[in-house]
Structures are given as C-alpha cells and as structure tokens.
Amino acid sequence: MATRGGDRGGFGSGFGRGDRGRGMRRRSGGRRDEEEKKWIPVTKLGRLVKDKKITSLEQIYYHSIPIKEHQVIDFLIGPGLKDEVMKIMPVQKQTRAGQRTRFKAFVVVGDMNGHVGLGVKCSKEVATAIRGAIILAKLSMIPVRLGYWGNNIGKPHTVPCKVTGKCGSVSVRMVPAPRGAGIVAARVPKKVLQFAGIEDVFTSSSGSTKTLGNFVKATFECLLKSYGYLTPDLWMESRYIKSPFQEHTDLLAMPINKLTYQDEAEKVEA
Prior knowledge:
Elements: H1 19-27, H2 29-37, H3 44-50, H4 57-62, H5 71-77, E1 82-95, E2 98-110, E3 115-123, H6 126-139, E4 142-143, E5 163-167, E6 170-176, E7 183-184, H7 187-196, E8 201-206, H8 212-224, H9 244-247, H10 249-253, H11 258-269
Parallel strand pairs: 7-8
Antiparallel strand pairs: 1-2, 2-3, 3-4, 5-6, 6-8
C-alpha cells in the first residue's frame, strides 16, 4: 500500500519531500535578507532590540514579554538559527463548488543552544505555507532547560528531569541519559531535540505516532515543560530587576521617527 499522498508530488512522506516548496524558499532567500535589513520595528520590544538595549532572549523570557515580530529572533540569534520542514500535507475542505485543497506545513526552528520553536501554517501554495510556518515558529520560540544525568561535569547535555508531553493520542516521555548515549528517539522527535541542543536523552512514545503533526507537537510540549519543575538548584532567592520597558522609559517615550530607521537601512545598503 502506497503512503498517503505519495502520488501527489511527495507531500505524504514528510521531512520536506515536497521539493516545490523548499526550492521556492531557497530562491527567495536574498529578498528575505533585504527585508531584514529594512526592518522598521513597530513594537516597544522591537525598538529596544533594534537599539541594542536588549541583547539576549533570556532578558525577554525573564520578564515574560510576548514577541510579536519575528525579526526580533533573527536580530538576536543571527545566522545560527536553522529551520527544517518536517512535513507538508494536503488538506481539503468540501464546498458547494467541490473540494478546496490547501497545503499545511510543519516547520521547526532552533539554534541548537537551548532555543526551539514550532510553527504550523496552512495556505493555498506550498511556498507561502512554509514561509508562514517559519515566521510562526520564530514567534513561538521557547527556552529549553538543559541538565545533567549524574555529576555536574562539563556543559549540560540532557534534560534535567523526566518530562512528559501529550497531544491528541500521542504521548512522549523523556528521561535523562548518561553522556555519550546520544538521542534515543524516533526520527521526528530526534530532529526537534537536535535543534533544541540536547545531546543525550532516552525517549518513549505511545499512541498514533504516525500522525506526525501530533507527534511533533507532543515533543514540543515536552520541552516546554522542562522549565515547569522547581528543582533544588532553583531555590535560591530571586532578585527582581526592572523590566526593560521600565528601565528604558525615556527612550520609549520619544516619538517614533521612521525616517531614522529608513536612513540606517539606506546606509547599510550603501
């Protein structure tokens, strides 16, 4: 029996086999770089990042500031950010005129250093779905807590404790592993864990794991819960610092001058 969607341009097998979308995205890479250079922030967070008052994602996560512009992630992480199309699948809706087919893309982004994001987007065209999924994945970027299996020697390499994530019928459980064990996981969660920067971990999954969308969402929820446990090393007294919005009130109170950012973008081009 052939895989679902196997005769529709390779959309059913996942991991970016739909070459139409990936090829088109590569061609638009130069244009996207130009858009990043001409970025004019429209939010307070974007203005502080553009003026280099915020230099890391941890400052944003510490104060639970929502990220509304995907250029913030590009500006802070830079070229170290990688993306992977996990699957492109056709979805249909029944209308009076017949069936309307659209394409749903699942994209994972990460810097392999404790930050990972998942984006899902549906669109009429494959390239548009991939582009939208990449933007949503950047906006949903989360911090992943790393830990040790035994003694605290060297850099953190695994999950700090046992965590479980669930989506639909799919349940994913992660268990800390000793250094050198590698990522013992299926193909889908292995790619997400690599993007998150985890080197060693044991996993077990149950449910309908052939549903790739739920499988990758359950893995993402599992990583999201890594900061949900209050372990003894987090019992130290918290010293509260001012929010960036409060610290840079004078800068944000100044009127927004779009010409200033436009002039800077023109200088970069020159």
